[in-house]
Structure formats: structure tokens, C-alpha cells
Amino acid sequence: MITIAEFVKSKRKEVGLTQEEFALKAGVALTVIRKIEQGKGNLNFEKVNHVLSMFGHELAPVESRLLDKNTEK
Fold this sequence. Notes:
Elements (H helix, E strand, L loop, with lengths): L3 H11 L4 H8 L3 H8 L7 H9 L10 H8 L2
Helix pairs in contact: 1-3, 2-3
């Protein structure tokens, strides 16, 4: 399973943007992008979803039993 940090960093690099350029396009502060890509824990859920929406994704609650089924494969 890929982390949010890995996902955002790889997608940002895929489109050829620096962290600063991506922050401007996403409409968030550069520190938000840095914290996400560093895997920091204390992040604003709304801002993370704003960044993920740039790639057509969002975070949503998932029942732990469903996660367990997906990791058994």
C-alpha cells in the first residue's frame, strides 16, 4: 500500500512541478505540501483533500474490517 506522502510526491514529480509550483496550483501553502510529502502527522484533513483533489482523489473514512480484507491478499 502506498502512503499519501509517496503518492503526492510521485504525482507531483510526474507532472514536473516543484513543491512551490504545486502549492501555488493547489492553492495551499508550501508548508502544507512539505508536511504531506514528509509524512507529518498533524495535518489539516481539508487541506490534504484539497491537494489530493488535484489528482482526482480524496481521503475518506474506511471501516477497519475492510482494510483488513484488502491487506490479506
